[in-house]
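Chapter review. Work through the record for UPF0056 membrane protein before attempting the end-of-chapter questions.
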Amino acid sequence: MDTAFLITAFVTLFVIIDPIGMTPLFVALTQGMSAQKRRAIAVRACVTSALLLVMFAAFGEAVLGFIGISMPAFRIAGGILLFLTALEMLFEKRTKRRADQAEEAEEDDSHDPSIFPIAIPLIAGPGSIATVILLAGQKPGIEGLAWVIGVMLSVVLLVFLMFLMSGLLERALGRVGTNVVTRLLGMLLAALAVQFVLDGLRGFGLAG
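Structure tokens for UPF0056 membrane protein:
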């Protein structure tokens, strides 16, 4: 067992995925939902993102190359999708839409944020996908792949645990505090989305 590699892999994935920083975002995206529905969203998001990261760790760039998608193009697409979510958060369209559909909120999954944007691209985004591909490339073979997947799953488990604690954070912030944080996170998400796009353009040699 290469302890140095495991520590490096864990720290790298922890910084890229950022379980602590993602918790307020999860609160903002699930604002007003019951604890049961929030827990279900957390499970779906973490399971989906873990499966995607396992697939990319196992098959790497061959998956994107097989369907003709480069990593820079993937970064640009993820950035655009994330920017649309940021706009909804900034202009409170998400909150108004939930208010209009309050009576069927418990059964309506049409706006479920578990797959997009929580699982993709916030957890399993271009950064984390590229990281697992690179880590798996550093330790070729079944054993190396197993270690990379194990480290990745441990980080996703931390994300899930932080999501379960999100209710406490929401109560601490209150309604006004949550709205303020939602707006601030919307700005941060917009900036992150633009950075994804710029990274993609740089990969194509179109940005300095």
